[in-house]
Amino acid sequence: LLKALHEKLWHEAFEGMERFLTRLGVPDRCIELVKMVIQQCAHCNAFTPVPRRPRFGAELASHFGDILMVDLFYLWNRQYMLMIDEATRYKVSARCTTKDAEQLMHVLLNWWIRFFGTPRVIKSDQEGGVKADEFSLACDRYSIHRQLAGSDERGEHTTTGLVERHIQLVKLAALKTEHQCKAQGLNIDQDDIVTEVTMHQNFMLEYGGYTPAQAVLGNNPRGLYEPTTDSIAANSGALDKTPDTMEKQIR
């Protein structure tokens, strides 16, 4: 309101000065310089309203399951798909054997839609499998809108920055975890490592004081191991020379 009032007063002052100069017989070419004079006035500039920020249209996720962002990434000569909810940052990684539309939709169906339902929008880059007619037909069947990312002058994607940043986090954590497993002599499948580090980031990363798991599930699930446990099997498991599947996960 104050900005609008100031602009109104500024325009009224300008119009009053213009009428005053016109009555004095000042040439029109001089009247055109009035705005320039006002812009160079230190007193006037001290009360210049802050310019409005440019407005542009943007689509934001309003709740979990509204907008799902997907992207492919490569690690250890294997291909994976990262699926992340835009509103809560809850994410899932899964192995993709190929890049065709049937395989991508199969991964989406088994790793996301089966548990969380169909999203309203799927955001992706210009991936060939996502652009394919088979993927389009599957999206139409589930009433899913595809939103493909463009690119700027530098060739960088304009709408998939979130999923690409989380891919960097997953790859970095997976490489560190694999290195630690080898140092401890644990034979862990690389697909399990990628799935594990993706899930643990849902429990540890915080946004506004809450983790993605809290936003989706309401609470963080129990950890795999409690140091204060009284279980004999839990304490003696550290001495096993051939740990089972559960012991490998705890380690």
In short:
With 251 residues, the chain is an alpha/beta fold. The chain contains twelve helices and five strands.
Instruction: Give the rounded overall mean pLDDT.
Output: 80
Poorly predicted segments: none
Measured between the Cα atoms of the first and last residue, the distance is: 61 Å
Count of individual beta strands:
5
Assembly state of the chains shown: single chain
**Beta-strand level of the residues, as a percent range?**
5-15%
Strand order of the largest sheet: 3-2-1-4-5
Radius of gyration (CA) equals: 29 Å
Structural class: alpha/beta
Word description of this protein:
With 251 residues, the chain is α/β, with parallel strands linked by helices. Helix content is 48%, strand content 12%. The chain has twelve helices and five strands. A five-stranded mixed beta sheet has the order 3-2-1-4-5, sandwiched between helices. It is elongated. The mean pLDDT is 80.
Write the layout of secondary structure elements.
Layout: H1 2-23, H2 28-31, H3 34-39, H4 42-45, E1 67-75, E2 78-85, E3 91-95, H5 101-116, E4 121-124, H6 128-131, H7 133-141, E5 145-148, H8 161-183, H9 190-204, H10 212-217, H11 232-236, H12 245-250
Parallel strand pairs: 1-4, 4-5
Antiparallel strand pairs: 1-2, 2-3
Helix pairs in contact: 5-7, 8-9
